[in-house]
From TrEMBL, chains A, B:
Record protein name field: Ethylmalonic encephalopathy 1
Keywords from the named record: Metal-binding
Segments forming domain Metallo-beta-lactamase: 92-253
Record-linked CDD domains: POD-like_MBL-fold
């Protein structure tokens, strides 16, 4: 495996060296607020269905030879309601597996400690060579499995933003490319939820993995872990809303059981990000959210790739 | 809207009249067992990744102009474990929305009472014309929203298998086609979990909605609601495993946070359906599962399209 970590500026630069996994380069949250439905008063006139009817949401990616899987990990809370359910889901954390179907090189995004067996079982079944476990940021609501995964998968590297403050084999920054076989994801720095948040864009811009920077009809909170509402607003508008309207958005969480959205939809319907920057800052500064249940144990563990260390 | 309900035999007959929604045609479960991982001893030699690398799992459907969304609804249970989680997910129920991006005609599969607002909000946002709410069977673990949805969406029809014993506007049987715009799903009868289970296959056979007949690495239990392990074995082998290996499987449930599988994977890795029929029957007759929590209220409600009646 070659070992090239290349910075690419500007973001859209077409020809770029790739970050090949196995890099020897020396390098080294608090999760989302509830994304609640749903304001009507939006200022975009785009019709998400008509932008590009050929591709819109009929598939998860239009790239041939790309394997893609979305997994869920769920946190529940006690809620007594009227329809005899005693527990409801508080958060759904998504993990993504991507692979080249020919070379079988694979990467995993935001893996969760509790679901490591599920994820590695599928990797084994499909005969994949998992080369990188990457986190979109230093999560505060769950513990990453990247450290334990490194102990169980020979040659596996971990990666996270160089601004996250966390340790990892590879520290990522704007324009870096994460390659697996003939495919790659490009890193876009999207600070605001935390100062180390990054977003991954597929080569054909048909998929974007937004972490907590942009959720379906919501976004990550900005009231700790170096959160900054102005930064988040700029990140989303400059780095995500500039993608094609039919680009599929795969976030780190959802609270309503939604699995995917599109840039066009969020540009039109996101109740926070369709506001002016001043209105957005006002909203974010007045959410008055409780401290996350697991923040103390999660953040300290995630700073070193999880409970099992780097 | 035209009103034609046509039976098509054999299943693969290419030219067929369609069941158009809004049909005036007079027509007259217990949900899945845990699908646990994961036996290695399988008799297929197919490599799910190499079957058709062009399409395998890189998208949820290869049909142009088809909008597709997968939603989750989650049941939790109390589980004291060692990593400070007090509640775990007992079941995840999937709902599917499909639409023609041009005509905006849409159908919904297995909608859940508790998530009706989420589902109808998205229908409204995307400007869809929801014409049919269809259930894969008479569910025993949750209550359908099809009855309430009919009250809230003008012109909406409900549909279910004619063998389900349940009431609906349209009673479906083998070979019927459910059309929305230029797209359609074909009905395959797959009894065994219940005698009224049906499976929906997309026109290009790139997607199959299997209800509880086939789950990811599992299948629905067969110990009540006219369950029959022999029938289920034949249903899966004759009606689902005969689809292309790269056909994406969207089940009614998952218990491990998995969102999709493929026919090739299940043919190779399903720990039950890779066995002989006799072994399968032995397994299914000895699951010794507890009675579902909500079976009494769910089944009686679902026989009439949910709590709100037909």
């Amino acid at each position: 495996m070659c070992s090239i970590l290349t910075k690419v500026r500007p973001i859209h630069r077409a020809v770029a060296l790739s970050l090949r996994l196995g890099a020897s380069t020396e390098c080294s949250r608090y999760a989302a607020t509830q994304s609640r439905r749903l304001s009507r008063g939006v200022n975009s006139v785009v019709d998400p269905l008509l932008i590009n009817a050929r591709f819109y949401c009929s598939r998860t990616a239009k790239t041939e030879g790309l394997l893609f899987r979305q997994f869920t990990y769920l946190h529940c809370k006690f809620v007594q309601n009227t329809i005899c359910h005693l527990f409801e889901v508080e958060s759904c954390t998504y993990t993504y597996l991507l692979a080249d179907t020919k070379t079988k090189e694979a990467i995993i995004i935001d893996p969760v400690l509790e679901t490591i067996d599920r994820d590695l079982n599928l990797v084994m079944e499909l005969g994949l060579k998992l080369t990188l476990a990457v986190n979109t940021h230093c999560h505060a609501d769950h513990i990453t499995s990247s450290g334990l995964m490194k102990k169980r998968v020979s040659g596996l590297k971990s990666a996270i933003s160089k601004f996250s403050g966390a340790s990892a084999d590879i520290l990522l920054s704007e324009g870096d490319k994460i390659a697996f076989g003939k495919h790659y994801l490009t890193v876009r720095e999207t600070p605001g939820h935390t100062d180390g948040c990054i977003t991954f864009v597929s080569a054909d811009e048909s998929m974007v993995f937004t972490g907590d920077s942009l959720l379906i009809r919501g976004c990550g909170r900005t009231d700790f872990q170096q959160g900054c509402p102005k930064c988040l607003y700029d990140s989303v508008h400059d780095k995500i809303f500039t993608l094609p309207d039919n680009c599929l958005i795969y976030p780190a969480h959802d609270y309503l059981g939604q699995t995917v959205s599109t840039v066009g939809e969020e540009r039109k319907f996101n109740p926070r990000l369709t506001k002016s920057k001043d209105e957005f800052v006002e909203i974010m500064n007045n959410l008055n959210l409780p401290k996350p249940f697991k923040i103390d144990v999660s953040v300290s563990a995630n700073l070193v790739c999880g409970l099992h260390g780097l």
